[in-house]
Amino acid sequence: MRPGRRILGSEHLAGWVFVLPATVLIVVFGIIPIGWVVLLSFQHNDLLAAPTWAGLSNYRELVHDPEFRDSVRRTIVYTALFVPISVGGALAVALLLHSEIRFNRFYRTAVFVPVATSTVATGILFNWLLDPTYGIANYLLGKVGLGPYGFFQDPDQALYAIVAMTVWGWLGFDVIIYLAALQGIPGDVLEAAALDGAGRWATFRHVVLPLLSPATLFLVVWSTINALQVFDEIYVTTRGGPLQATTVIVYELYNQAFALFHAGYAAAIALVLFLITLVFSVLQLWVGNRRVHYSS
Amino acid sequence: MRMRLPFSPRHLALVPISALMLLPLVWMFVTSVETLDQTRHFPPTLIPSGFHWSNYRAAWDQAPFGRFFVNSLIVTGTAVASNLLFCSLAGYAFARLRFFGREVLFIALLATLMVPFQVIMIPTFLIVQHLGLVDSLGGLIAPNLVTPFGIFLLRQFFRTLPVDLEEAARIDGCTRLGVLFRIVLPLSLPALATLGIVTFLWTWNDFLWPLIVITSTDQSTVQLGLASFQGAHDTKWNLLMAGNVMALAPMLIVFVVAQRWFVRSLASTGIR
Amino acid sequence: MRRRLLLATALVAALSLAAGCGGGSGGSSGGRVNIVLWHGYVDTEGKAINAAAALFNKTHPKIHITVQNYGNSDYALQKVLTAIRGGSYPDIVYLYGSWAANVARTPHAVDIAPLIKSDPSIHWNDFWPAERQAVTVGDKIIGVPALVDNLALVYNKKLFRQAGIPFPTASWTWDDLRAAAQKLTNPSAKQFGWAYVNDASEDTVWRFDALLWQAGGDILTPDDKHAAFNSPAGVKAATLLQQMATIDHSIYLDSGNDNYANLFNSGKIGMLFTGPWDLSQFPDVDYGVQILPGDQNHQTISGPDQWVMLDNGDARTKAAWTFLKWFTSPTEAMRWSLATGDLPIRASETKLPAYQAYVKRYNGIATFVQNEGNALKARPVLVDYNEISQAMGQAIQAVLLGKAQPKQALDQAAAQVNQVLAQGG
After folding, report:
1. CATH architecture of the region A65-291
2. CA-CA to B171 of 20 to 30 Å: which in B269, C211, C307, C352?
3. Each residue's pLDDT tens digit, C342-359
4. Interface ipTM
5. Backbone φ, ψ for residue C133 (5° rounding)
6. CA of C73, closest CA in chain B: separation in Å?
């Protein structure tokens, strides 16, 4: 959608006036700090002694760093699992909650609780639930003849356990977004579809789903941005292990910056992550703009 | 269209889901009423052997939590209000107005979310310091006045509204600002409620930024106060969880109250 | 776009310069020097530091010290780095020993070697050897000892009696440890003989270091240029861990969340290699403390932390030095230990009358104090230490999980470490 050519047209002016406050704030607290990070990425800097100029050598090292490559691979696997499961699961739960059944308010609040719970408490809870020896998960799975599993202690399972834990922690967030969007679907549209003889599944697929597509696009983009930056939950459980199985990009970044004092290198990692995220988001928005259905 | 079944099959799915989601709250509560010695067991139990409500009093007294709650409320309340305002303005512009550089600006603002906070916290601190806001509530509020998340959310939501209403109002001579405040926002209560809840959640639960910016006790927030229960090797779990339960309460209250804006009569279509 | 970036960078650079001057919230007021101390103490220790500050302020009218809690120590480094970067930092800050070499690199850290030389009242040699080693970075001394501890064998007396094993003695060997662990392990009761922290962090490494030193090995060569932990001594230590974990299954592998402490308190673990800080977490256990079982010797490892002084001008540095001398003096240090259970930081404290009250109050602490004499070697104080630690941690974790053989794992880690050391940091 190309903007019109009347640069001084009132719509252009109005547009800029409307976005100005937010833009100024985000430039000051978002863009300028990122500029600092860009500068840092061209330095050998431990944030303690005087930095030295590194030029592109941090980036060159990054390209040849197998640990970084592995962290990228793990992050993408994590994201590819987290986004569809959490968004799809949230849609299912939102549809369940979008009704007038009794205790609805209670259910909605319950679903929201994990989102409001601190990461520390969530980590402790899952460390206990998934403990190979003493946890409830293996206990229950044993009753149906499965397991025991290592979960956080097994290098082959740890990343998937983190997926489960973070889906649990964020589902409620996606649910309330979907609930808000479902509220926006006018009742008469659904009635019209029913009158036309459309079955429930057909109504869902051809009426509800397209009307939810703006929310779906939002959630997919937002979940992707967050999934690519997953850190806190890993920090309170597996600490990047075992055997680095859960060392994702931001964990590698954190380790480089605050354990190894390679802040310049960490900044380079941050910018590469930024580019990866940007590419994903732009692609998603571009596809979304073509397929998302806005007006009713 | 509204049918009230005596028993809906939805309960069959919602009960186990809710149970799973409520598990941390149950554990937190049980831990919060145990004695410290009782917490030193693994695996932990979900059934309390006694109710030591005195933990709540002890937690409250351990640090000036009254002050912390006030500080957190001020910071969070301001952040919610300013986000609702600025993100509405910007979100509406991105949704409905055509202006030069719109798409690029949108991506640029969104892009600021793509760098992890761990890296930008130091330059953000330097900026806040330059503004003279270190160790003050202003320093906590300033970086949280607007989030691109809110702009994105509202932009998506505003686009789902029928354009005819707004166009009709414009033809009637309403200014764009008027259209936003009188037509669009009243129809967007669920989205605004969502943004409000989420902003509240994030600002209330924020730990790392307050840790960096605040040093004085009387400027501390609830989350910083909770950190005082955690030593390097010796955490008072019962008091910490009592504190966590107390800190969780306002959020749940906000959520329950905001639910009324989620419930819209299914018969309404918004045509006035 | 480029010009905007340049403008932005210029702006940030300008901000950094502008923010660069000025000290912390200390300063002088009416002839009195104000200094600030950052710590991570909570609870009992938090009360103790506040009491110490109040006492000092009362007895030293020319100086006023303010103590502030900097939050959880995990994030403390970030807070301190930000403060140093922002140019506004405290005069004294509590830092982990593992950060010493790195912190020494900032020009703001005060080198106290000249102060020690010119002021013998600090009685520097009264501090335990391990502490003094931990703060020595090359020619500089960058901190005053704040905390010392070491690893000893803590065991559950009831479980030992139940299994019919005599309590550990001071001449226990690795074979004794292994045999006892086997007898104390009961899969159906979900009981383990020993616990080991297996999160590949320094927690994993430093226990191994004790075993390595007991077998006569070293972490690095004397010139600090090559890895030495993959020697036969190291392989022997790693093999012990491998056998106990993968053959005997007598070790509970803790994932770094300190579950082992609660498990020990619940009577599910027979023995621990741990330090005095954990003792208060075992209210339900009748525990005993013994020096570590040995191989060629019974060496242990110590983990000192320190008070680092940051430069905010001569007046404040002098005031900070006065405080630290007072705070670490035998009387005040003993008062601190009695209140908190921390080990005495000076050898001479054991001669004070208050020391008797101290060993009486804290069950088993006397063995820890005595064990400090077994802390003969220290970890290298190098800027690259954390990279060395991570390489070793990964190797030990792999061995404990049964994913690698001791020799291969240690050799691989040694190759990594040699590369890091060759690059010179």
Report:
1. Orthogonal Bundle (1.10)
2. B269
3. 999 999 999 999 999 999
4. 0.87
5. -65, -40
6. 6
